[in-house]
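hey m, so remember when u said the tokens were messed up on ur end? i reran from scratch. heres the input so u can diff it against urs
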Amino acid sequence: MRSTRTPVARRHGRRRTLLAAGLVTALALTATACNGSDDTKADATASGTAAAESGSGSGDSKVKVPADVADKLKKHGVDVDKWADGGWQDWDKDKWLSAAKDFVNPVIEGLWKPERMRSAKEANKTVTTKDAAADQGVSDPEPTPVEAAAEKTPYHENAAPVGKVFFDSPEGTMVCSGTVITDVNHPGKSNLVWTAGHCVHAGGGGGWYRNLVFVPAYNDLGKSEAQLGDATAAEISPYGKWWADWASTSNEWIAGGSETGGAGAAYDYAVLHVTPEQGSKSLEETVGAALDMDFSAPSATDVASMGAWGYPAAPPYNGLKMFKCLDRPGRLSLSASLPAMYRIGCTMTGGSSGGGWFRVVDGKTKLVSNTSIGPADDTWLAGPQLGPEAEALYQSMSRTYGGE
């Protein structure tokens, strides 16, 4: 397990069962029933507007670097003044790998303007047919593709905990998906977001990404690119922008993750602790919804239905709308030495990486996995089982940083 601290500054039915329909209903009810008071909604809207209008919004915005973040940068030989003047855009490989041993993510107000978010590219993760076949006899037959269905709008009434994760990488401005989750040690006041490890860290031979921001219920009304040109800040980011001030992912992903999943694919998960660009309430209070975690790692053969939510960004999608897939899960094993992953039929593409997988337990929707890998032809998605290792990472983040 790897957890780092910094003070503020992929995706992819055989059959659709009644339980599948129940999963959709439960998620919608969870989001709506916990949506908060009218005062909370008003505060969230005001926060979203202020966040979009504050700051210069230029790529070279002056960063306010807290003292301990400055000390961390200096430790890695980074000139703090140059970093604050836009040096965070320098991805010189040697310097990046040195500095990226620690997660450094000071807030840059106004950086994530609507046009910058729209231009972000998918964090695409694929595996080849050959890789997927290396199952040592553990994998179930490849599922029939399930056409992704558009989520109902407004998103804040139907899937409020789901949103987009934006970040900068050496390849440019990127995007994933994520989910607001509950914090067992700080009930009702969670600032935690679940996503994929490859959405926060490059894996083996790489480092931490920069300028990580979570935007819950992004593009709330599901507007087209043309319509978004006239959209209000509250429509684009109804609950504002939330910067990750701490991030954790698995040691397995850090050591063995790769562009095709690699040895880290079965451990491709991460949890973020976030803080608002504007405002003071917690993420859960602001959004009015958060999903419980399920770390029981049930066998795929024991689960009738799972659903994956996210914002696919690679063609034929453009990352502006939320989609979902529901299917009975099967098993996918990339190696006899790795835990089996869940796999469902789904046509979602890159950009949906990190999006939560949900199942209904005793009538309550819980997050049981996240989108990690899929094939080049985008016919299915696979996600890691979340067992004791994932729970330990979550608990460590909650106990250490959850109350801050």
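this time it looks ok to me. The radius of gyration is 19 Å. if urs says something different then somethings off w ur setup not the seq
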